[in-house]
Amino acid sequence: MPRASHPHAMQPRNPGSTRTAPPQMSPKFPMQGRYRAYTLFDWTGLIYLLLGFLALRVVWALGTGQEAWNVVMDQFQSPVYIGFHVLSLISVIFVGVRFFSFFPKAQPPRIGPVKPPPQPVILAGLYAAWIGVTLVMTLILTGVLF
Amino acid sequence: MSEPQKKKIVITRFDPDQDEVPKTQEYEIPVQPDWKVLDALNFIKDEVDGSLSHRWSCRMAVCGSCGMMVDGEPKLTCKEALSDYGDTVEIAPLANFPIVRDLVVDLDGFMDKFKSVKPWIIRAKERAVEEGPMRQSPEELEEFKQFSMCINCMLCYSACPVVANEPEFIGPAAIALGHRYNTDSRDEGAAERNEIFRGEGTVFSCSFANECSEVCPKHVDPAAAVNQAKFNAVIDWAQGLILPRGGK
Question: Using the beta-carbon criterion (under 8 Å), do B207 and A42 form an inter-chain contact?
């Protein structure tokens, strides 16, 4: 049997006298069919939370001194950290692609007097901006820029 | 003459006078190649078990009455070819709705949510008959036409994971309808509806699963409407902060 929805899902404000059976969720929720991508999209939030803690730790090491910084950099060489960073990269790409696929249709037909460009143009602009920012970041991190 | 093909139809049954919880019942029936899923249900009702309860009306995907879960997906049963499914087909009432009996769900909660978005044209001042009809250009019509194609079949509510978990959420079809009127050039009630949209359990509860648009049999794209309504609600709020008298 499928899982139960919230017991008050789609309940009328003034329920009638007929006894009803409680609502049930789609049997495919949360990990079958199209729901799988949605659930994984939600779970990537956990990865970003861990990434946030990691970033705080790096900033703390940076403020503490060279020795602490070296310890963090050494730890980043371990397979666990490398694996986590690969997983984070996959998550960012997955979320980016999913967000970009939905973003164009979320644009209202006009914002004040201005009409947004056609959806393929918005999509192309998003990917162009993503590639551009990635290139600039790569150039900065590899020391080519600055 | 060859034997007609047989299929096993597994139907969720619930009798409020006898059952504590819904149960399933199996029917093995002869089927015709051109049957829709609804034809199988009507055959069972007419020939096998008259106690089965289900809703249907137009048989041409217009009235939106015959929405049910078919093999776990919300579908209009009059639109779905039975031949597209395997030898066993599971039919259940729409997910996320209280079940009244067998495949019939309670619509009153949906109607409450529907009314809450004021789905009618709001005018600051009524137009006199002598002023003639309100004209609208094809471009103006195009901006909301897609969202006016909803047949209230409630498949989107059945597919939405937020509806399943947040009882206050007014849901995809109601928001799409509110947005339809907000984008109608004849309407002057957008500020009123945006106020509703900024409230609890409305557009910002949507997590953009996009399931509503995937299952919509009329390609209304409620997910687009909900997220456009989010955008407009924010713009409207920001205008209220920046412009004198809220930009009105």
Answer: yes
Q: How far away is chain B from the Cα of A136, in angstroms, using its nearest Cα?
A: 30
For testing the chain B interface, which of A5, A17, A26, A107 should be mutated: the one with the most B CBs within 10 Å?
Answer: A26
Global pTM?
Answer: 0.93
CATH no. of A26-90: 1.20.1300.10
Secondary structure (H, E, C), chain B: CCCCEEEEEEEEECCCCCCCCCEEEEEEEEECCCCEHHHHHHHHHHHHCCCCCCCCCCCCCCCCCCEEEECCEEEECCCCEHHHCCCEEEEECCCCCCEEECCEECCHHHHHHHHCCCCCCCCCCCCCHHHCCCCCCHHHHHHHHHHHHCCCCCHHHHHCHHHHHCCCCCCHHHHHHHHHHHCCCCCCCHHHHHHHHCCCCCHHHCCCCCHHHHHCCCCCCHHHHHHHHHHHHHHHHHHHHHCHHHHC
pLDDT band at B35 (very low <50, low <70, confident <90, very high): very high
Residue range(s) of every CATH 1.10.1060.10 domain in chain B: 108-247
Closest alpha carbon to B178 in B107, B125, B236: B236
ipTM, two decimals, is 0.89
Give pLDDT, residue B3.
77
pLDDT tens per residue across span A87-97: 999 999 999 99
| pLDDT, position B139 | 93
Architecture of domain B108-247 in CATH?
Answer: Orthogonal Bundle (1.10)
Per-residue model confidence (pLDDT) at position B123: 94
Helix (H) or strand (E) holding A44: helix A35-64
What is the interface size between A and B, counted as CB pairs within 8 Å? 139
